[in-house]
Amino acid sequence: MTAIGFDPLLPWPVIATVALLALVVALWSWWRGLRGWALRGLAGLAAAAALAGPALETGIRETLSDILLLIDDRSASQSLPGRAAQVDAALARLESQALALPGTEIRRVTLGDDPDGSLLGTAITKALAAEPQTRVAGIIAVSDGLTHDPAMIPADAPAPVHLLLTGRPEDWDRRLVIEEAPAYGLIDQPISIRVRIEDQGRVPEAIASAPARLHISIDGEDLRSLDLPPDVSLDIPVVPRHAGQNVVSIGFDAPQADIPELTDRNNAAALQIQGVRDRLRVLLVSGEPHPGERTWRNLLKSDANLDLIHFTILRPPDKMDAVPVDEMSLIAFPTQELFLERIRDFDLIIFDRYRVRGILMPQYFDNIRRYVEEGGAVLVSAGPEMSTVESLNLSPLGTILPGRPTGRIYEEPYLPRLSPEGERHPVTAGLSGAPREGEASHWGRWLRMSQVIPEPGAQVVLTGAEGQPLLILDRVGKGRVAMLNSDQVWLWGRGFEGGGPQLELLRRIAHWSMKEPDLEEEALLADVAEGLAVTITRRSMSPEARPVRITRPDGQTDTVELAPAGPGRFTARWTAPGAGLYRMTDGEISRVMALGPAAPREFEETVASGDLLAPLAEKTRGAVLNLSQGIPDLRAVREGRQAHGKGISRNWIAITPRGATSTTGMTHRPLLPGWAWLVLVAGLALAGWLAEGRSLRLRRG
Amino acid sequence: MIVKALLAVLGLGLGAAAQAQEPPDPRLVTAADEVALAYVVTGEGPVDTASEAGLRGISQVLTDRTTVEPGAPIGIRLDQDDLSLLTFLYWPVTESQPMPSPQAYLRLNRFLRSGGMILFDTRDGDIAGLGGPDGTEALRRLAAPLDVPPLAPVPADHVLTRSFYLLQDFPGRYGGREIWAEAPASAEEAAEGAPFRKLNDGVTPVIIGGNAWAEAWAIGENGLPLYSVGSGLDGENQREMSYRFGVNLIMYVLTGNYKSDQVHVPALLERLRREEVMQ
């Protein structure tokens, strides 16, 4: 690169003035008929040019090497048998050939696993962005071509893009496709999961026509097995049985053939379906209006997901006044409908200071007893009436109550305390402000309770006056019964002596009764924090926990010891070796946990295919070749030429040397040295003077 | 005196533990156990007597007619007594009543926030609104430090009109004056706050009126009314209506919006029936 530059000695206006003066002088001389007018003018202009300092500028340039981008796909799908060796061989050969080409540098980009699969498109885009566009001479990707980011594949590239596909021509695979699976399901309501079997690659004839044997299990229990032919969508009904996570695993046996399928890792999927309750329905039966009644209402009505049917006895049958019925606002309650016909629609029945006074018939109570035994829940919040002849205990419901009243009522202030069982039980464990040794401040006292002898097997979690049971929890058949032997929990809400966590306690009792998974006393929990790290928590009423045995997807087992972490809690941290379905058990409780994606994305499709990258290769005159047909030679061709072809023995692919240069410096040489300018200007002036002088002399002669 | 002050300081220093050791006032314990109604002792003999007799009268009516069987009413000295064991407080407003201490207002505000209710009675239903002196000024003075929500006249469909009896008005010894309670939430607020129901389920913490209810309810030792209400049969009718208001009021205090929710019960049952058909 050469150019003329100026390095003016004086500011440009001055130089312009000099040039202008030269022209004016030349014009004046011409008008006067002086013969040397042209020379005079030239001399002036030459002086102006000398002042402008013209210089010759020359760049110093250097040729740059060409860059070959080698993309080395080491994602999990490349770990299938034979593929890693193919990649190694191809890269080694390409590298040695590329080094033999003059002025070629190699940039190797290794592509690993990403949670979103293999991101080949992103890798290409990033590698291109990191290099100067004018130096990239070729891009060669050694991959199975299965990328999960087709949108990131660039539309064009400055040099040929070649894709060398791993895999063998006889590769085939059968996989399970989950077409549709809900993340949530109502408990006991069937939901459907739509699945399909898909064959890819060169499937052997015998397999292609044979259906796959599907096995479906929920929470590790086999649900059913069925045959499903390929490419047929099937809706599998599944019923979540409990709140929280229901792990559904679906899989089929690997088909038997001479050439085995590429992988069996895409033959199964584990889905987590969150079981959610429909709206909870609670029936609250208040025996009489009392200050604690609004406490219950505040609790139950603050939950938007709860339908409350409340029923208060405002007037007992034995009291009458002379007021006409149409001036009263009393409604007869549909007791028969509620307690006989619809009782199973309720998730919880609360008896709040209920006294048996002939409003509910004995067969209703009998029905409630059956309802509990079949899985219902009853919560009794008992006032002093529990110790009287109108006690619920004397109704047919008495057989399932977790305590027998003795008839004694403590009318003295007492402090509710957690029993040793209560320290561990999720209903009471961790209630804020619980009285503890050595802590001065704690929740307030209550003033009245009934003495009750707990049934054997029932859990006393709170104690009151003289250490007598205050809150008793029990299981009856499939159902649950909770009994609070005082009606004064409202004192906590009122802030008497500082109050206490009344809403939280009542909420927990109610939800424990309704089998809320978070409040189960015996539970084995797995919290998947991030990736494959799992916090295993065992909640238990027993003082120690047994080690947890974890069965990996491949059948190996790990044993994890749990360390105590507070009353009734034992925890351990454990990291799974890989994604998949893990079973854990401590001998009593078993749990299934699905780690990682439902089916590893890498193995969704495994048969190598260049379809996604083919448009880019075609546009840049590159090639998509199978490595199973041999590793191609690497050549160099001119830009714009076809960059692949067939050689004598094997195919070839090419890079296009770009001949890029960079300017590393600049020389600046004045056009003429100063003395030459002086000679030029002086010479021109002298020549003009001589010419004019001679003409004068001629005229005179 | 000094010993007492020292003890108080010690008590404060030891905090709640020391406090919890003190036996609670046995009157208040009984009140908590028996849902006793309470009134504010004003220091004016005749007014306090009327309050006591009035609450005794309405307690008797409740016991005769409903499941609620309140114990003997108790008088509350705001400057001393703990309110956390009470549910209902009748507060007759008098001109000469001294302002309760700031600590008393703290207790009152906590009482209102945690679900208690105060019935303010200016007992001026006969003279109010005529332009002369009435109880408004005293009420304003006494109630100013309280955290009272925006108030509005009780609408015709308020749950107070049907918590036990169906009522059109709320007479006491005087009648015909409207009473005030917490203003219903505007439609906008109600829609915005629908999933987050209000504290205490939207039950008003105060009711304000001037109908001298205690005097209408009051009975003497012999069980006969102490004060005349109106004249003749109309008067007795008005007394009966004041009893009904009392019953409704206590039912509202204890059961909150129970009666207004009952409207929804048939709809809920209908839904259960429909779901059964669907299954």
Helices and strands, with pairings:
The complex is a heterodimer of chains A (701) and B (279).
Chain A (H helix, E strand, L loop, with lengths): L1 E5 L5 H20 L5 H16 L1 E10 L2 E8 L9 H18 L3 E8 L8 H11 L5 E8 L17 E5 L6 E9 L3 E3 L4 E11 L3 H4 L3 E7 L2 E8 L5 E5 L5 E9 L15 E9 L3 E7 L6 H9 L4 E7 L22 H7 L6 E5 L9 H12 L3 E5 L21 E8 L6 E2 L1 H5 L24 E6 L4 E5 L5 E8 L2 E6 L5 H5 L7 H12 L9 E6 L4 E7 L8 E4 L5 E4 L2 E2 L4 E7 L4 E6 L4 E6 L18 H6 L4 E3 L6 E4 L7 E3 L4 E5 L5 E10 L3 H27 L1
Parallel strand pairs in A: 3-4, 3-5, 5-6, 6-33, 8-14, 15-16, 15-17, 17-18, 18-24, 34-36
Antiparallel strand pairs in A: 1-2, 2-37, 7-9, 9-12, 10-11, 10-13, 13-14, 19-21, 20-22, 22-23, 23-24, 25-26, 26-30, 27-28, 27-31, 29-30, 31-32, 35-36
Chain B lengths: L1 H13 L1 H6 L4 H9 L3 E3 L4 H21 L8 E3 L11 E5 L9 H12 L3 E5 L14 H8 L7 E3 L26 E3 L4 H6 L13 E4 L3 H5 L14 H24 L2 H5 L2 H14 L1
Parallel strand pairs in B: 1-2, 1-3, 3-4, 4-7
Antiparallel strand pairs in B: 5-6, 6-7
The CATH topology of chain B is given as: Rossmann fold
Overall tally of structural domains of chain A: 5
How many E strands of chain A? 37
Summed up, the domain count of chain B is 1
SS strand fraction of chain A = 25-35%
Spatial order of the strands forming the largest sheet of chain A: 16-15-17-18-24-23-22-20
Task: Provide the CATH superfamily of chain B.
Answer: Domain of unknown function DUF4159
Which CATH class of chain B is shown? Alpha Beta
Strand order of the largest sheet of chain B: 2-1-3-4-7-6-5
- CATH architecture level-2 label of chain B: 3-Layer(aba) Sandwich
Radius of gyration of chain A, whole Å: 46 Å
Number of strands of chain B: 7
Low-confidence stretches of chain B: 1-20, 193-197
- Provide the CATH architecture of the largest domain in chain A: 3-Layer(aba) Sandwich
What is the beta-strand fraction of chain B? 5-15%
What portion of residues of chain B is helical?
40-55%
CATH class of the largest domain in chain A: Alpha Beta
Radius of gyration of chain B: 21 Å
Quickly give the structural class of chain B: alpha/beta
Distinct helical segment count of chain A: 13
